[in-house]
Amino acid sequence: MNIKDNIKIASKDILAYKSRSILTVLGISIGIMAIILVMALGDSAKKSITKQIQTFGSTNVYVIPGKMSDAMSGSMGQDSLKLKDLEDLSKKSNVPNIDTIIPVISSGGNASFESENFNVTIIGSTPDIFDLMQLKIEHGEGFYPEDINGKNSILVIGSKVKEELFGESEAISRKIKIKEQYFKVVGVMEPKGQMGGINYDNCVVLPYSTLQQKILGIKYFQEFIVKIDHEDNIDVAVSDIESVLRLNHNIKDSSKDDFSIQTQEDILKSVNSILGVLTILLSSVAAISLVVGGVGVMNMMLTSVTERTKEIGLRKALGATNRHILTQFLTESILLTFWGGLFGMFFGFVLGYGLIVVFNASSNFNFVFSFPFFGAFLGLLVSSAVGFTFGIYPAVQASKKSPMDALRYE
To answer: How many CA atoms within 13 Å lie on the side-chain side of 142?
Structure first.
């Protein structure tokens, strides 16, 4: 018999035991669905985060205090970026390829107006933050360099802050209270949503000097965001930034740097690496269900061999060889798991898309759904391999049966 005949006969035999076949296919489907779902969500997360990072601009460079490992743990060097660093980095003579540099300080707090309260993210920076972070002011205006010099108590609020504290009322020129200090609202930003881990709709933005002195009581910065004039100049600019900071901090050995510099490419590599590892780990856990499904396939095929002993004897009596019998049962096993892979792929796609839609509807983060077609193809191959692996033993047992003993079997 050729492959087509084997598949035809195998399909007929599988459909003869519908309930048992459906349960076996379901076991494989769940495993493949879990793997496809994890891969789809992981791929979607990668593309969505990449898109979010790229919205900041491919020429942005981030300077943070402390070494990267220390910055992640918060253990040391958090006060290493000072006003002198900002001033020196802003000089074209020191870093010719800098287009814009902004300092960033952030904190959490409760904002209140009359009887209304709302938890906000407080961001302190310069007026350039609105252009660099693409924050548009819908009503009112931003603040100016003189507001930084005067440490003026003014701020620009996000759209959600405006909605929660003022509703439909006018917010401009009203004063809101944050940490026992009153600040005049001079502008309201357009809805921006989540970007780079910050929901700007829940933010208030004010002069960094005001946040340093009147709220936090500090004299350092948590980050510098630097926009380089061209992608080709990023490496040169990073080298210049390092030189300025090492000179300011009296550092002669680069291994003792009390700052770290990250480019967009560095961030993307880190994010993709972390998500890649998580996807592999979760897929490996999900793959355990494939083993369980494979055991189910073996159990069904062994039961089928026992129930069809007479059929095996009759076929051998009519000229079927051990190879024919082995191929027939192995084809049934592979076909079962292949169907399971197809159904798992379909349900993984539907469930993955559904979860993305629900997540987008319930949050401000815009996930981009991505279906891993290569992963789906790989899933079909894996499911077929499971059928082959767990179907070999039952198929061999069937092929070894003696025609005379099989015909006498009751």
So the answer is: 20
pTM for this model (two decimals) = 0.64
pLDDT digits (tens, 9 = 90+) for 118-176: 999 999 999 999 988 888 999 999 999 999 999 999 999 999 999 999 988 999 999 99
Degrees, nearest 5: CA angle 248-251-252: 130
Give the C-alpha separation, 350 to 346, whole Å.
Answer: 6
Alpha helices for 190-233 (secondary structure H): 208-210
Q: How far apart are CA 193 and CA 202, in angstroms?
A: 8
Cα 202 to Cα 99: distance, rounded to the nearest angstrom: 28
Helices (H), 106-256: 129-132, 145-149, 159-166, 208-210, 234-248
Picking from 14-23, 171-180, 244-253, 379-388, which range would have the lowest pLDDT averaged per residue? 14-23
Distance separating alpha carbons of residues 229 and 306, to the nearest angstrom? 76
Give the model confidence (pLDDT) of 221-234 as tens digits.
999 999 998 888 88
Q: How far apart (Å, rounded) are the C-alpha atoms in residues 281 and 403? A: 48
Give the integer Cα–Cα distance in Å for 296 and 288.
13
Amino acid at 263: T
3-class SS of residue 219: coil
Residue 318 burial (C-beta neighbours within 10 Å; 0-12, 13-18, 19+): exposed
Closest CA to 126 of 262, 227, 197: 227
Residue 306: CA count within 13 A, CB half-sphere: 6
Q: Determine contact, residues 35/351, Cβ cutoff 8 Å.
A: no
Please give the torsion angle defined by the CA atoms of residues 237, 240, 241 and 243, in that order, rounded to the nearest 10 degrees.
Answer: 160
Gap between the Cα atoms of 200 and 121, Å rounded: 8
SS3 330: helix
Per-residue pLDDT reduced to its tens digit, 232-277: 888 899 999 999 999 999 988 888 888 888 887 777 777 777 777 8
Do β-strands 116-125 and 194-195 pair in parallel, antiparallel, or remain unpaired?
unpaired
Phi-psi bin for 106: left (phi > 0), alpha (psi -120 to 50), beta?
beta
Helix (H, G, I), strand (E, B) or coil at 176: strand
